[in-house]
Design brief:
By secondary structure, this protein is an alpha+beta fold. It contains 7 helices and 27 strands. The protein is 25% helix and 36% strand. It starts with a strand and ends in a 7-residue tail after the last helix.
Length: 358
Amino acid sequence: MINILAIRCSVAFAPYLALSAADFLSDGVTASRVVRQGGRSLILRSDSDLTLRHEHRQASLGVHEARHYAATVGFRNEFYDVTRMQDEVVLASVGDELLLSYPQSELWLRPEAVAALLRAYAGDSNAREGATLPGLPEWLSVSTGGARLLLSDQRTGRWVLLGDDHVHELKRRLGLLSPLRGATGQAPPTIQLKGLTVRLQSAFKLVATLLDFTFNANVEPFEETTPTYALKAARSTEGIELSDSHTRVSLTVREARKWADIIGAELSRLGACQVERGAIRTVFADHEGGRWILQWGDEVWLPNGWRDGVSARSPSLPGAHGGPLVKRSDEFLLALDGATGSCVALTDSESKLLDDVE
């Protein structure tokens, strides 16, 4: 998945995002377009900013934000080998699965399914009847003819027609599918507030709001929306009300002071700090022999020793202890968790904050 502020979309949109970001950064504008992949739409346009809209959520990127997300989208493009082909078919190699996306729907295919498709294209007679072949999932049927491969998803009734160029790309990728590198299997720490889960990405903002309410009787309403959670603060009859998508709690002045102290103490225990660069907020926190980096839904854990072997001559390497992949670009230090798709980008000054964990 790709996170861009409040938006989360499929990696199949990466080629379109990369193109629009490149145009915007080069010329200050990008052609307005509506693209579809996997049965979903992404609207891209520009005025003073690069604006994206996907599934009722919108993000506006200035030049600095566009550079940031151009880098993270580009790293995903490279790592998952995302390719946009004729008829808007997009292929991506995600570990030992192949993502075949097209405007109406998408298919996730295991290596044995890809091999079955190649056999069908090479002349398996059963394929001419639209049958399910050995190696294919039972929900996928295939027909051949006229140097074409017709795939029909029986779950949705959607179909896609592949040509010779698509089939050759399937063949190229088959031998490259392998389990994902860089999987951590961890989640960043959170803080519980009367049943409400406080994420570290919003914790500093929440503490400042609670303290303002405690000392000034002022409630500055805010609502933070990321691809994975939302947190809202507003005035209530009891004092201040906090809510997410599932839970709502109210705090009096005394409770607000207590919880500001509790959350602040937990942030100190974790060695947490926050940096804001335009609309990009980055939170760092120590945890389990490494350091978490959080950027609006992108959550990457770097283990101790992650710098070992990373250099300009080695553009993409697995981190130490099976950690994420790390890459240096002209502007950023990039870290990608291949299992989740989370990717963060740090400037030189921000990456120095990682030294504390060594």
